[in-house]
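Suppose you are handed only two things: the residues of a chain and a line of SMILES describing zinc ion. What would the bound structure be? This form records exactly that question and the answer produced for it, so the two can be stored side by side and reused later without any lookup.

QUESTION INPUTS
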Amino acid sequence: MPELPEVETYKRYLDETSLDQIIVSIKVIDNRVLDVDESYLRKSVINNRFKSSIRHGKYLLVNLGQKYLIMHFGMTGDLTYYNKKDDEPKFSKVIFHFNNDFNLAYISRRMFGRLDITDSFKDFIKKKKLGPDAFKMSLDEFKGALTRRIAIVKNLLLNQSFVAGIGNIYSDEILFRTKLNPKIKIDSLDECKVEELYTNIKEVLQYGIEKQGDLSTYPDHFLIPHRKKEEHCPICKNEIEYVDLSGRRGFFCPNCQKR
Ligand SMILES: [Zn+2]
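ANSWER OUTPUT
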């Protein structure tokens, strides 16, 4: 599932390929990915340009001037910029056609991705109850988000209203690096550990962005290549265990992540 580093990669891709060209038409192949009325989407987008984009958590908001086009990538979303009709990617759901004859395809293999239109970036964040962006937040914002929270740390990292952008895979890496058991309560951490957690959130996401979300190229000393049954911890060689929390399976080393 695309998490923050993957969506940041899509953002940079869109910025490099698709800004400042007039959108002359849209092809909606499957309107089940629309959270907005199809005619309103057309009206909002056609004859406008993608002027810039902002990523917040796992959402990409593309500035159209008066409005924003919102992209969420669900479980399997992607973007492809292409020229020839024959190159239309498989599983394209919506295609934006530009005046230079190129196209941007919004792809979703399953139906979980979503497109929407909003008038205000801030209202959208409020409506979706999103916390601060996990990569851009300051230490003070992080500490502010922690106030009065008593949840299990893994659940909290996955909770988009706490901080936005972290999913199952990167939360495992963050906890591994911070040597925290996924089931520890957040309010039991001292200030020093909270700051360490903050630093590791930033570093794990930064590394993910540099890797453009490609998990297959992670070096052995990360937990990510060992997130499966019968794998061993790259540090202590103990067997990796898993825990099911909020419907997701987290992996951890019971020896390194005792706390
Ligand atoms: Zn270990």
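WHAT STANDS OUT: The chain has a mean pLDDT of 96. Strands lie at 23-28, 52-56, 59-63, 68-72, 77-82, 92-98, 103-108, 114-118, 241-245, 248-252.
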